[in-house]
């Protein structure tokens, strides 16, 4: 991996040029993407040295990356799978085959055998389906839409799918916000790469005093209209093309207003092919409306008018997704309240919502923004999911190692970034939703006792479900698999420790993933599966004055 990183560094300019031609990436967007790919290679190589004891590789891992980050995301997927000891098949996005081919060439040049890393460009048709469902594939890393994850699961219900999926991300602009900073970060978050990022802020929720301040919309309008739209290869371009002519969701966002909405800036198609659109901003978006709840992946920003801060938080949480979320506020107590209540994997305070850095802001979401037994990319737990771990054999040892991990890491907010101008915390949250565990006669008493211990140690609400009465669990709900699937609404997690086949597609249609892995023997591997990972990045300066501005504390609940 070190050799690969060195090659990536030396070929930075060539890679940037390929991305600009392949996907329309601007130079300013492509350059940090190369840096991210290098960081992935080095970080996973170092992480692998600590991850092997008590485990074996999955086998063959299929990487199915997106077109919007055609270099960093597939490189991260390939490097993580290789670092965990697996053979890898890279199936590039059909739109960005040239960039993925560059990845394969660089890794082969670095010494990865072609028998270990295979490059298989296919369209997303029957050939792609054959790859995903092939019996020789032991795991799939997907970065794409939630609908794609659901499709893969319908093809192969038992699939070991690790997916980072969609996001409907918002920045809350408080009455206490600095308007200049808020506008800058909002525009960058909404229109970077023409809004084609899963982390992009397609929604702003603005408190009354800012919404009614003419300066806010005047500055926002001026900033958006100053963006230069053009080809990614041009140095002057700030907003590049969309990857293909707008599909139904994006076309609706670009061209349609719902009741009460109006255009602050109306988007315009500026070429005949449909790839170039000027950015748009729509006002008057209502709670529960289409623009409030839907992702569209393009250069449109929707704005909601919130009567107060707590209502704005409720609206920010009121989507099916939980990938990134931002707030601009100079009131320290508001920042603390926001951090404690927002349901998303990556939180950003007084900064933009894009540009997560490996190991500094490990990336991944909650709710429908994450599918399967996965963890944050570029984080401490990611490689764990790419190996099969020895199962529980000694309950006392597992509880001891779990307790050690919880006391040292799981119950704390840790900032290991060492930065003065930015605080970056990594922490674990207890879901306020019920954690459902399906058991049967094959589920060991040690496993059941461990789960009881998890509930007591972490404060999680855990519910057992079983086909018939189980004398080892006094308060289990007795129900069939179909009845269980029918009654579940939206628990954050389901653990399947039964020999019954889980109704994977039925559950996923409700946004629920069932983790079918047995209880692992190592506490630092097993206990993180029961909590929610979160990264919190807080700007710790105002206009270069380090330590100025709010310094919210993070309380662990």
Automatic annotation (TrEMBL):
Gene3D superfamilies given in the database record: Aldehyde Dehydrogenase, Chain A, domain 1, Aldehyde Dehydrogenase, Chain A, domain 2
One annotated GO biological process: L-proline catabolic process to L-glutamate
Molecular function per GO: L-glutamate gamma-semialdehyde dehydrogenase activity
Functional pathway: Amino-acid degradation; L-proline degradation into L-glutamate; L-glutamate from L-proline: step 2/2
Entry keyword NAD: yes
GO CC terms in record: cytoplasmic side of plasma membrane
E.C. no: 1.2.1.88
Aldehyde dehydrogenase domain span: 3-385
Catalytic activity: L-glutamate 5-semialdehyde + NAD(+) + H2O = L-glutamate + NADH + 2 H(+)
Keywords: NAD, Oxidoreductase
Pfam families recorded: Aldedh (PF00171)
Coiled-coil ranges from the UniProt annotation: none
Name by which UniProt lists this protein: L-glutamate gamma-semialdehyde dehydrogenase
Source organism: freshwater metagenome
């Amino acid at each position: 991996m070190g050799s690969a990183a060195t090659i990536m560094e030396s070929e930075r300019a060539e890679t940037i040029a390929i991305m600009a031609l392949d996907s329309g990436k601007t130079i300013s967007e492509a350059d940090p993407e190369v840096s991210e790919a290098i960081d992935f290679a080095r970080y996973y190589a170092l992480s692998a040295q600590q991850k092997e004891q008590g485990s074996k590789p999955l086998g063959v891992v299929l990487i199915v990356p997106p077109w919007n980050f055609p270099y960093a995301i597939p490189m991260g997927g390939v490097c993580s799978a290789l670092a965990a000891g697996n053979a890898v098949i890279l199936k590039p996005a059909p739109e960005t085959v040239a960039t993925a081919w560059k990845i394969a060439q660089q890794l082969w040049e670095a010494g990865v055998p072609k028998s270990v890393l295979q490059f298989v460009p296919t369209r997303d048709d029957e050939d792609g389906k054959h790859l995903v469902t092939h019996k020789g594939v032991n795991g799939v890393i997907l970065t794409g839409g939630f609908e794609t994850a659901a499709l893969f699961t319908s093809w192969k219900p038992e699939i070991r799918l690790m997916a980072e999926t969609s996001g409907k991300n918002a920045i809350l602009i408080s009455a206490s916000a600095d308007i200049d900073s808020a506008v800058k970060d909002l525009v960058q978050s909404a229109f970077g790469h023409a809004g084609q990022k899963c982390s992009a802020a397609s929604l702003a929720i603005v408190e009354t005093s800012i919404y009614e301040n003419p300066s806010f919309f005047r500055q926002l309008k001026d900033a958006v209209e100053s963006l230069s739209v053009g080809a990614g290869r041009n140095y002057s371009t700030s907003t590049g093309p969309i990857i293909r002519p707008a599909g139904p969701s994006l076309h609706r966002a670009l061209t349609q207003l719902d009741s009460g909405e109006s255009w602050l800036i109306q988007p315009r198609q500026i070429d005949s092919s449909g790839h170039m659109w000027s950015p748009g901003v729509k006002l008057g978006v209502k709670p529960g409306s289409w623009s409030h709840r839907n992702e569209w992946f393009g250069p449109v920003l929707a704005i909601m008018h919130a009567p107060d801060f707590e209502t704005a938080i409720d609206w920010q949480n009121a989507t099916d997704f939980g990938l990134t979320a931002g707030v601009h506020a100079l009131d320290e107590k508001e920042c603390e309240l926001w951090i404690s209540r927002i349901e998303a994997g990556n939180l950003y305070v007084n900064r933009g919502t894009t540009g997560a850095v490996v190991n500094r802001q490990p990336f991944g979401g909650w709710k429908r923004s994450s599918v399967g037994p996965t963890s944050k990319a570029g984080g401490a737990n990611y490689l764990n999911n790419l190996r099969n771990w020895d199962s529980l054999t000694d309950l006392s040892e597992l509880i001891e190692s779990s307790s050690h991990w919880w006391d040292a890491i799981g119950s704390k907010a840790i900032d290991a970034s060492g930065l003065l101008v930015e605080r970056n915390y990594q922490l674990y949250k207890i879901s306020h939703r019920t954690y459902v565990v399906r058991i049967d006669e094959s589920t060991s008493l040690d496993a059941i006792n461990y789960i009881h211990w998890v509930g007591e140690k972490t404060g999680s609400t855990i519910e057992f479900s079983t086909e018939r009465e189980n004398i080892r669990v006094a308060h289990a709900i007795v129900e069939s698999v179909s009845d269980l699937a029918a009654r579940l609404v939206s628990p954050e997690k389901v653990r399947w420790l039964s020999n019954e086949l889980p109704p994977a597609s039925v559950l996923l249609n409700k946004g629920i993933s069932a983790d079918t892995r047995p209880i692992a023997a190592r506490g630092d591997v097993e206990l993180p599966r029961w909590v929610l990972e979160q990264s919190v990045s807080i700007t710790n300066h105002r206009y270069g004055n380090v330590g100025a501005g709010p310094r919210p504390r993070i309380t662990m609940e």
